[in-house]
Amino acid sequence: MRTGLARRMLAACLVSLVAVAGCGVRPSDVIRAGAPPSGRVAPTTKITLYLVKNGRLSAVTRPSDRPVFQADTLALLAAGPTARERAHGFTTDVPREAGPFSLTAKPAGHLVVTLSAAAGELSTLAVEQIVCTAAATSPERPAQVTVIGAGQSIDPRNCPG
């Protein structure tokens, strides 16, 4: 009696297998779709800094794979150019002691950059670097920028470049 039950179970399994296998999916040839993607993932953000080359301001764009806050962009000025940028002759006049920075947006496209160093002791190029880099982060163009630090203030300026 057990063999009869086993045969019926085996037959039921085979019928179920045939039913599932014939559910309408037909075999096909290989479908070619081209080469798989390769290379680096493109960064989503570009950062614009104003560095110095041959005594003049120059806009430099750096890629970033994460959002960068306005004050972080200014901190990059104080950190100086990358090795690749240095190899191309870029420098910075913004001293490391100028950071950390804070940036406050005022109405009508006016920005206030607060430094950790005395604003009056910065070179003209350092002030222009800060003004232009801060203005590049502003959605309103042209943005006026006031630089403040250690109780000293530099009058509002637009980026000369």
* Major beta sheet, strand line-up: 4-5-6-7
Helix content: 25-40%
Please state the average pLDDT score: 83
Report the count of strand segments: 7
Q: What are the low-pLDDT stretches, counting only 5+ consecutive residues below 50? A: none
SSE string, helix = H, strand = E? HEEHHEEEHEE
Specify the biggest β-sheet: 4 strands, mixed
* Class of secondary structure makeup: alpha+beta
Radius of gyration based on Cα positions: 32 Å
Query: So what's the overall shape?
Result: elongated
What fraction of residues sit in β-strands? 25-35%
Count of runs of 4 or more consecutive helical residues: 4
Terminal CA distance reads 97 Å
Concise description?
By secondary structure, the protein is α+β, with helices and mostly antiparallel strands. It has helices at residues 2-21, 70-79, 83-87, 124-137; strands spanning 45-53, 56-64, 90-91, 102-106, 110-114, 144-149, 152-157.
Blueprint (SSEs and pairs):
Elements: H1 2-21, E1 45-53, E2 56-64, H2 70-79, H3 83-87, E3 90-91, E4 102-106, E5 110-114, H4 124-137, E6 144-149, E7 152-157
Parallel strand pairs: 5-6
Antiparallel strand pairs: 1-2, 1-3, 4-5, 6-7
